[in-house]
Amino acid sequence: MLKTLNRLLVFREPAVPRYEFEAGREDRPSAPAGGRAPSGAKKPAGGAPGDTAAFEKKRAEGRRLDAILKGNRPLSTSLDENERLLKEIFREPGNKDIVFRPFSIGTERPRRALLVFFDGPVNTDRQNLSILQPLMLFAGLRPDRIPAERGEPGPAGQEAREELAKRIREALLPGNEVSPAGTVREVVEDVLNANTALLVDGLDTALLIETKAWATRGVGTPQVEAVIRGPQEAFTEQIRINITLIRKTLRRSSLVTEFLPVGRISPLQCAVMYLDDVANPALVAEVKRRLKSVGADYVNESGILEQFIEDMPGAPAPQTLATERPDRVVAGLVEGRVAIMVDGNPWALIVPATFFSLMQAAEDAYNRWPPGTFTRLIRYVGLGLALLLPGAYVAIITHHPEFIPTDLLLAFAGAREPVPFPTAVEVLLMEAAFELIREAGVRIPGTVGTTLGIVGALILGQAAVAANIVSPILIIIVALTALGSFTIPNYPFSNTIRMYRFFYIALGTVLGLFGILVGLFVHLALLARMTSFGVPFLAPVAPVTRSAPDYLWRGPAWEQEERPDYLDPLRRRRQPRISRGWTQRRTGKGDDRPDGR
Q1: Mind listing the pLDDT tens digit for each residue in 530-577?
Q2: Domain ranges of the chain
Q3: What is the DSSP pairing of strand 531-532 with strand 535-536?
Q4: Phi, psi of 536 (to 5 degrees)
Q5: From CA 393, how far away is CA 513, in angstroms rounded?
Q6: Distance CA 181, CA 472 (A)
Q7: CB 535 within 8 A of CB 545
Q8: Rounded CA gap, 187 and 195, in Å?
Q9: Least enclosed by CB within 10 Å: which of 216, 250, 360, 490?
Q10: Bridge partners of 179?
Q11: Considering just the CA atoms, what is the radius of gyration of the chain in Å?
């Protein structure tokens, strides 16, 4: 029996592989009748069958090409050599997507040239009109200024090559984005970004031409951060469209966009946006430093990038503000924050983030301040219900029934009389069932998921009460808890609250209200210890700093005079002291500066 359990629980790699790839069968030595391989036979790497020599050769070839790319190898003046090297890097002819288009520049002495691009992501019409037609039909280069076929040596040859590249770039290519590249790595990265590389024989410089034609969806409405009053535009998967949406709203010359590649196997463009005359330079430098230090192979989503750049990975709350709304990004930039966007992802990250920014909705700024303050207070009440209500219910029923009025206690006892489970088990069953319904509703596409969530919750709750598994009081508790979690505007923060709810249920079961108070104290201590890019998470409350009335409550728009002090922006004030100019008395007093410092 011990041997059987050992075989079931402990995995051992078989001595002889039980399967074989077709490509490796003829290269493998045949085994004798006893089933044992010859003593001189090599075992394939990792136990996988196949030709070991071919495997090692393939790996060495990959390392050689990676070394060429990492070493910034310069381009050669020989077109044939550049073509051969690029074909090796792009795995041609095995790779059918890459296209090498040879042609001749139409001069009196034709010169060989080559276009390198991927079929599909590029705009072929733009290629024909902006590259091939001008070079093949309308080229007017004088032959006396063209370098020799193999490149003239010395300063004269270099000067002639530079003049030829400049003439082609300035006079023969009408595209609006043409940039030179002198290394193999620059050519490869630009071709991977759906652009076209032009190589000319005799030149050690390639011309990179913008020809992108990615298939993208149009600008739609926000799906997660929907508002009743406010802009109805959301980000898309195309980073250029997202930047355009921001610049369309924030038309200022100091708005800076910097691109940083993130990822080693497939570097994706990561855009860092900030107002150069508002954002703290130290904050901008820290954001760029963290992005440049990411050493992952592939980062395709802002949620993955967030995990690499956050201050405390195990913290009880997210440390970046994820949003799909351009207007929220613009509001953060104006305050002095920094926005991070990843190509191919419709969510932007705003840093630094605080507890109060996570609890703010996009619609708060568009409503008048009395209802805006009221809805924000309702949101904080919902946060308290989602986090503490189930644990407090268990603690009071189990350890502190004297807290409940007598009539209500009798009603609770009568409702729970037929239930066979303790209160803690009852709560855990219903909370787990509700989390299952919620997760299933998210995974099922379309309106079916919403219908499943509503019908499933009704049927499950009614059936559980009818079967005397839970009490009707608990259905009310679970429903209020769910409604409270839905009021939290930030989805990652809402998920964190859902997770910590079970810890408070456990504390209420074991230690009662004392355990919940201890857990709440530890929770607040952890939040006070957190930072987001060096900014305290509970600022401007802990520590107390100067800020406009827009954190616990929503102040009037004309009182939002100063930017948050914890961001330490270059411009302290964002509007004059008297911003409603029509109410200002004509006494000559008051700060009339449009952007007081």
Answers
A1: 999 999 999 998 888 887 788 888 888 888 888 899 999 999 888 888
A2: 74-209, 239-365, 373-529
A3: antiparallel
A4: -55, 140
A5: 9
A6: 71
A7: no
A8: 9
A9: 216
A10: 208
A11: 33
